[in-house]
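Q: Sequence in, structure out?
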Amino acid sequence: MRQYQFASFGLDQLKITESEPPAPGPGEVAIDVRAFSLNYRDLLVVKGLYNPRLALPAVPVSDGAGVVASVGKGVTDVREGDRVMTQFVADWTDGPFEARHAGSTLGTPGPGLAAERVVLPERAVVPMPDGYDFAQASTFPIAALTAWSVLVTEGKIQEGQWALTLGTGGVSVFAVQLAKALGAKVIITSSSDDKLARAQSLGADHGINYNDNPRWDKAVLEITGGRGADVVVETAGIATMTTSMKATAAGGLIGVLGGVTGLSGEVQIAPLVMKRLRVVGVLVDSRAHFEELSAFLAEHSIEPVIDRKFRFDELPAALQHLESGGHFGKIVVEI
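A: Exactly. Output:
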């Protein structure tokens, strides 16, 4: 079988290698991967910016979808031929997050999905919802579930409340779709008027071009009648944190999940204190919440937005497209 490995860091170090297909052991499932989607984390992993001490060689990519090829002894929840998605935090099945769960993430330190076949623990696979193909389902495990975690698990957003999401990558686009299906009102930011128009065609109530409106927190307050957003999907990181807090309603929640603008720097904490805000770090979510999301997606016929599809041998180009920031929604690689 074919798989991608990198023995040293850098996109130019990604190489297709050949190996014998792995066989599942007790409690494990072998999956023939049919599609995987890319997340910013995957780019950071390959470039050595996510974990510079990562044991190499490694197989990248954190989520995907495929068909169960075989199962090991003791597996009861899935069987050969089932269509499944991966659970990114493999050991987080339910309940509160624990420190040990971070060591079970797929795409390092756990198995990577950039392979024709992968073996995972049974608990790390979730049945695909009806009505979706593999490319679509591959976008759900991280991007959709992260948006769900901010809006529902942590934010508990209610009908008529305001959600604010930053940018037009996979998480933000899912946040628009999910928030609207939940009855909320949505504001989205971008540097592109064309992307804002596309987001509004998906249901976003307002779009703010942050190049034209550097103090976009004031625009959010104006749109919401001075209230601010009840839930903020903070995808950008340190450079936008202060502005996000200023744009948040008193008692509101900011779900921090990305760091494309950096992970450290100066932040004004006055809005945090004076408005009694909650700032929550979001590392995707549990398998139990993924199952809830899967049912919700099917019930509301939410169709993921796929910016572009690449062939398996085009993974480096797909990661370069992700790095360019020109995408809207998700980037998928099909096998």
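The longest helix spans residues 140-154.
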